[in-house]
TrEMBL record:
The lineage of its organism: Bacteria, Bacillati, Actinomycetota, Actinomycetes, Mycobacteriales. Belongs to the class-IV pyridoxal-phosphate-dependent aminotransferase family. One of its GO terms (biological process) is carboxylic acid biosynthetic process. GO terms for molecular function: lyase activity. The keyword Kinase does not apply. The keyword Disulfide bond does not apply. Coiled coil: none annotated. One of its GO terms (cellular component) is cytosol. This is 4-amino-4-deoxychorismate lyase. Keywords: Lyase. Pfam families: Aminotran_4 (PF01063).
Length: 301
């Protein structure tokens, strides 16, 4: 196993330490593209079909050419095979609009092709923060996202349900939280409704209930959250999509940040208030792990 594995969409292994993008790639110039992040565990890309389906939906939202999912699937499988089964890995699927200069060139008999999107799969080691977040949980700060829950419907160009490469504000929120002594963020709307983390879904547990904000409020539908719900329902939990106010976060048994790489991180402190671990913490962690390893039928996802 190498440090990183790079595979282009034609299925070819590339040198992960050699340059790949052109300087005028619109993904780099404007963040105009979409991505997915997938956990490799035991030599398998977890919940791959769910990630591919979301890649397609994100691409549709940006009016990118329809991704050829069979090629993406093959590229991921090639990359994961190369990565091996010994260590967990982080797979990134990157899909950008391609080269700026190709959009200026008129289509002609000599150059009849539409501009080609940039597409590749990169596997890297899982970041060091992940092990701590899984084992000990995370200190979280709630921050204003500055948007209403109505924005997703009213302004589709905000691309709120798409996993786009324009994550500079998400990263800025994480840096802000770090300066304030926290490790992660829960965004809320102008109505003080809970949204999501900069790279995770928020789920709370209360009694035998799990609650997450509905997608129409402008949060990204999370593969990890969806995988948890699929197994938790069978295990007797009531799984709900429901509006949560920030105040509700202090009236529950546990708060979880769910995401493909960290999987499940319990919030152990929110805005300076310690949140002690309830007895069923391990039960919930086990459910999420089981969920991503056996995500089941894709159904209405
Ligand atoms: C990726 C992401 C999530 C979590 O989705 P998973 O599919 O579970 O990884 C949630 N919110 C945002 C903003 C994200 O980028």
């Amino acid at each position: 196993m190498g440090e990183r594995v790079l595979v282009t969409l034609d299925g070819a292994l590339a040198d992960a330490d050699a340059p790949l993008l052109y300087a005028d790639d619109i993904g780099a110039l404007r963040g105009d593209g979409v991505f997915e992040t997938i956990l490799v565990r035991g030599g398998t890309a977890t919940a791959l079909e769910f990630h591919l389906a979301r890649l397609r939906r994100s691409a549709q939202a940006l009016e990118l050419p329809e991704p050829e999912l069979s090629k993406w699937r093959a590229a991921v499988e090639r990359a994961v095979k190369e990565w091996g089964a010994d260590d967990e890995g982080m797979v990134r699927l990157i899909y950008t609009r391609g080269r700026d200069s190709e959009f200026d060139a008129p289509r002609s008999e000599l150059a009849p092709e539409d501009p080609k999107p940039t597409a590749f799969v990169l596997v890297s080691p899982v970041p060091a923060r992940v092990a701590t977040a899984r084992a000990e949980g995370v200190k979280v700060m709630s921050l204003a996202r500055g948007i209403s829950v109505d924005l997703a419907q009213a302004a589709p160009w905000q691309l709120l349900g798409a996993k786009t490469l324009s994550y500079a504000t998400n990263m800025a929120a994480l840096r802000f939280a770090r300066r304030m002594g926290a490790e992660d963020v829960i965004f809320h709307s102008t109505e003080h409704k809970v949204l999501e983390g900069p790279r995770s879904s928020v789920v709370i547990a209360r009694g035998k209930e799990l609650i997450t904000p509905p997608a129409k409020s402008g949060v990204l539908p999370g593969v990890t959250q969806r995988s948890l719900y699929a197994v938790a329902e069978k295990a007797g939990w009531e799984c709900k999509y429901q509006t949560l106010f920030t105040a509700d976060l202090f009236d529950c048994d546990s708060i979880w940040l769910l995401s493909s790489i960290t999987v499940a991180a319990r919030v152990n402190q929110l805005d300076g208030v310690r949140m002690s671990a309830p007895d069923n913490v391990q039960e919930i962690i086990d459910l999420v792990d089981k969920g991503i390893e056996r995500p089941g039928a894709i159904g209405d996802w």
